[in-house]
Amino acid sequence: MSQRKTLAFLVGLALAAFVAGAAAQEPVERHRRATFWDLELGKHALELPREAYVEYACGTNGGPPSLPLSGWADYARCPKDAATGFHEVYFRYDDELQYVARARTVDEAEEIFRFEGTTEFNLPIIISGLFDDDGFLRGIRFVTDPRTDELTREKGSNAAALFRIRFNVPWECADLPPSAGEVGYTGPIIKQRCTAAANGEHYLIERHRYRKEGQLTIDPVTHQATIGYFVSETRFERTLDAIANREERLAALQPLPPTERELLAARAMNCPGCDLSGADLKRVDLRGANLAGANLSGALLHASFLTGADLSGANLAGANLNRVDLRRANLAGATLTGAMLFGAYLDGADISSADLTGALARQSTMIRVNAAGAKFIGSDLRETRMSNGDFSGADFSLAWLQTSQFARANLQSAILVGARLWQTGLAEANLSSVDARQADFIGADLREADLREGNFAGAGFVQANLLNALTEGADFSGAFMTDRTQR
Question: Residue 11 contacts by C-beta under 8 Å, 6 or more apart in sequence?
Fold first, then answer.
């Protein structure tokens, strides 16, 4: 096996090992997240799960969110819905499992699909709870979300049939009259409303599929066929007629105590050297916290705010830092081996001399980061944004850097042995004195980059752009270039 093939094999083996190792730590049973099916009508806002859902806000009759809320208990801040007289609270499904799947998966996979966004029946949805004046959950409102691609939105009207199957009650259906200018879309106009009542509950399903006035098949100006000009949606509402023992239940309600996560977050605000291994700190606000030297190995910090926090020398090995905000944080000398950082924000952070070996940091941002001397050995850094950062002396051996952006970054004396830099943006980057033996720069943008004194022996530059790059003293022995490589 050639040296190039051997290194390519090791790259794949390294990432596969980290992914498999992380997956092996999970319970055997498959994860699941809470959905609207888990909400029990008749429960009070103080009795509903507080941390199972996210992004609470006042609803807008099945439209986008308006006033942000801290949780169910803020229901009274939302105006009453004109149609039902209830307070509408918009919410979304927790995305932790979605980002775990995205971080650990080399390519698209079923786990990503299962947990992606707030969806039902493979359709993105807008979901909200309907509360009466006393705070009891009296209804659920479901509307397929039109803010998606045309092919997915086209299937929105199909959910109506699925609800009719799910709730086996005596439905009464009637067609609604079309409004002025409405015409059929791939068939006759569909505007149907179905209602039912059973077991003290009322159900409503509306199915819409048509073009509104002005949503033309052919654009009158360009004379081209239009795309996306149609309505295809399902609206479902389930409401509870009455609350049994209302007064007694209200009298028995107790104020909400702080959650374990809230108590832990308060402690973590000033906890240098603390042992917080495996701690659940998901979505908490730790901006400016002092966690220098703390043990946060295996901690759950998904979507938390750690802006400006001091994590210097901290142990974050195997931690879940997906979507975390670490902008301007101090992680100098920190250990992040095997950590998940998918979609994390590290702009302006100090990660100098930090160890990110095997980190899963795809689609993260590290603009103007100080990563001098950091280790990224075997890390997944695909699609990351690292422009204008200082990566001098950093070790990217066997790292995955496809389509990442290093424009104007300082990579002087960095190690890129066997790294994959396919279509990576390195325009005006300082790559002087790098060790990039056997690295793959397929389709990379190296315009005006400084490659002087660099070791590129055996590296691949197929279709790379080296226009106006500085190459004095660079070693390209055995490097593979084609006629289409621009120099």
Answer: 378, 398, 400, 418, 419, 420
Cα–Cα distance, 236 to 197 (Å, whole number): 14
Phi-psi label, residue 320: left if phi above 0, alpha if psi -120 to 50, beta otherwise:
beta
What whole-number distance in Å separates Cα of residue 115 and Cα of residue 121? 12
37, part of any domain: yes
Tokens (6 digits) for 282 = 């998901």
Q: Is residue 313 part of a domain?
A: no
Q: Could you tell me if residue 397 is inside a domain?
A: no
Q: Residue 31: what residue type? A: H
Q: What confidence score (pLDDT) does residue 241 get?
A: 96
Q: What is the pLDDT of residue 23?
A: 39
pLDDT score of 224: 66
Q: What is the pLDDT of residue 223?
A: 63
Domain-embedded: residue 484: no
Residues 6+ apart with CB under 8 A from 482: 462, 463
Residues contacting 392, CB < 8 A, separation 6+:
372, 373, 410, 411, 412, 413, 414
Between helix 96-104 and helix 3-24 the angle, nearest 10°, is 150
Choose among 460, 430, 467: nearest CA to 445.
467
pLDDT in the model for residue 213? 83
The pLDDT, as a whole number, for residue 105 is 75
- What pLDDT, on the 0 to 100 scale, is given for residue 364? 98
pLDDT at residue 110, as a whole number: 54
Spell out, as residue ranges, where the chain has pLDDT lower than 70.
Answer: 1-31, 106-114, 216-221, 223-228, 483-487
Note whether 125 and 95 are within 8 A (CB).
no
Beta-bridge partner residues of 233: 208
Give how many domains the chain has, as a whole number.
1
Domain hosting 69: range is 32-248
